[in-house]
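Q: Structure tokens for this one, please.
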Amino acid sequence: MSETAASRPTVLELLDRGLLRPEAVARLADNYLAAPGLRTHAHTLSLGLVLDVAAAIQAYPLAGAILASALVSPRVKRSAVGTAILLARPQKV
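A: Here is the predicted structure, written as tokens:
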């Protein structure tokens, strides 16, 4: 039986349950910001979960707008990417 997207926990829920470490989210955000031009940024999280950071940013429109703005500081851009990651629902591999 395949699970629906809504039945998968978000990255934030996985953090709350202690199944992921905050450093994993920071690392994903840093990796994305280091090379945002890549088409996909699929990264394996613990527990056999995969998260495409580029897709997470696309699903959180505010992050895309923030990243596109030249008026926004790198710190705010990193926060926007981090928020998109926290709201994303990783897929099982």
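A few notes: Residues 5-88 form one domain. The mean pLDDT is 88.
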